[in-house]
Write a structure and sequence with these properties.
Length: about 350
C-alpha cells in the first residue's frame, strides 16, 4: 500500500467574506489561482485576511460572495467534511492520550477505514516524515519538531487534493524552524502536493514558496514568485514587508526606453522606470544595497553624506543606523573586520542591485 497524491487546483473568483451583517470585511473581492503541485504562501501582517482565506479553502468559513473551486469542483457551499483537503494546525492538535500511530491513523478510522489498514497507512505516513519506529510513543515524548511532523503525517495519510498549513512553524525555535520548513518543502516537492501555506514570516515565505500572495487590508497587495516580489515590489508596502527596505524620496528626471535616470539626493542612478513618468517617485533601497565608507579628509567630498547613529555586530554582518539628507537608513554591511564607529561621518553610495522605483501615492 502506498500513499497516493492527487494534486488539485484552488481557484478564488471574486470572493468576499464579511462578518456582522457586513460591518467587518475580512476578504474583499479576492481572486487568485493555485495550480496543481504548487506550494503557495499567503503572507501578510496580522489581520490582513490570510488566515480567513485559508479557512475558506478548508470549509471552516464560508464565502459571503464569490466562488471557490478545488480541483475544478465548486465547493463554495460545501462543509469542511465534504472537501478533499487536509489541514495542519499551528497548535499541532495531537491527542495527548493516543500514541503517535493512533494520532496519524485517527482521520482514517473516523471515516470508516479498517483499523489494520489505517495503521498500515499511518506507518507509511510516519516513514514519509522520517519518524519510522516512533508509532508507540506518546506526543509528550516527542520534540516540537517531531510533533509537527506527526501532524503533517496525519494530514498526508488522508491523501488530500490540497494540503493546508496554518502557521505550522510558529511554535518552534529559529534553528528548528529552518530545518522543518526545509523538510516540508522537500516532502511537498517529492509528492507533488498542492499546498497552501500561511505565515507572517517573510523569510519563511521566500524559502518555501513557488508563489507568494501578499495580503493587506483584506485584499491582495501583490502576488508573484519570491524573486519577483523581492526585486520588483509594486509598492512601498511590499518592498518593506518582503525583506526590509529603506523608502527614500527621489526624482525621475529622464526616461530612455525601459530605463530612467533617477536623482537620489545628489546621486544619479539608472533603474527600470516600471511605467512611472517624470517627477517625484520613491525608491525602495534594500539594506545590503547601501555602501558606506568612512570620511577621511578630502576623500569625504561625496554628494551624499551621513552619520552613524548605531552600530551592531551580528557575527557575519554589521548593522548600522545612519542619518542622512535622504532620511534615516538601515544598512547591512558584510565587512566586519573594520567596522565604522557610532558617531562617524560616512559617505553613502549604492550597489548595482537592490534598488527599485515605486509609486509615491499609496
Amino acid at each position: 500500500m502506498k500513499i497516493k497524491t492527487r494534486a488539485g487546483s484552488v481557484v478564488f473568483e471574486n470572493v468576499t467574506k464579511t462578518y456582522g451583517l457586513g460591518a467587518v470585511t475580512a476578504i474583499d473581492n479576492v481572486s487568485f489561482t493555485i495550480n496543481p503541485g504548487e506550494l503557495v504562501t499567503l503572507l501578510g501582517p496580522s489581520g490582513c485576511g490570510k488566515t480567513t482565506t485559508l479557512r475558506m479553502i478548508a470549509g471552516l468559513e464560508h464565502a459571503t460572495k464569490g466562488k471557490i473551486l478545488i480541483g475544478g469542483k465548486d465547493v463554495t457551499q460545501l462543509p469542511a467534511t465534504d472537501r478533499d483537503v487536509s489541514m495542519v494546525f499551528q497548535s499541532y492538535a495531537l491527542f495527548p492520550h493516543m500514541t503517535v500511530l493512533e494520532n496519524v491513523a485517527y482521520g482514517l478510522t473516523v471515516t470508516g477505514v479498517a483499523k489494520a489498514e489505517a495503521h498500515e497507512k499511518a506507518e507509511e505516513g510516519l516513514d514519509l516524515v522520517g519518524l519510522a519506529g516512533y508509532g508507540r510513543r506518546l506526543p509528550s515524548e516527542l520534540s516540537g519538531g517531531q510533533q509537527q511532523r506527526v501532524a503533517v503525517a496525519r494530514a498526508l495519510v488522508l491523501e488530500p487534493e490540497v494540503l493546508l498549513l496554518d502557521e505550522p512553524l510558529s511554535n518552534l525555535d529559529a534553528k528548528l524552524r529552518r530545518q522543518v520548513r526545509t523538510e516540508i518543502r522537500e516532502l511537498q516537492q517529492k509528492l507533488g502536493l498542492t499546498a497552501v501555506y500561511v505565515t507572517h514570516d517573510q523569510e519563511e515565505a521566500l524559502a518555501v514558496s513557488d508563489h507568494i500572495i501578499v495580503m493587506n487590508r483584506a485584499v491582495i497587495a501583490q502576488q508573484g514568485t519570491p524573486r519577483e516580489l523581492y526585486e520588483q515590489p509594486a509598492s512601498g508596502f511590499i518592498a518593506d514587508f518582503i525583506g526590509d527596505a529603506n523608502l527614500v524620496g527621489a526624482e525621475l528626471v529622464e526616461v530612455e526606453g525601459d530605463m530612467a535616470h533617477i536623482e537620489i539626493g545628489g546621486l544619479r542612478q539608472t533603474l527600470p522606470h516600471r511605467g512611472l513618468g517624470i517627477g517625484p517617485v520613491n525608491v525602495a533601497v534594500r539594506p545590503d544595497a547601501i555602501e558606506l565608507s568612512a570620511v577621511n579628509g578630502e576623500s569625504g567630498q561625496s554628494s551624499l553624506k551621513g552619520h552613524i547613529t548605531h552600530a551592531a555586530y551580528l557575527g557575519n554582518q554589521m548593522q548600522y543606523s545612519v542619518t542622512s539628507d535622504i532620511g534615516d537608513l538601515f544598512v547591512i554591511d558584510p565587512h566586519i573586520d573594520a567596522p565604522i564607529a557610532t558617531g562617524d561621518e560616512v559617505r553613502i553610495g549604492f550597489s548595482g542591485r537592490g534598488l527599485a522605483v515605486v509609486p509615491t501615492d499609496e
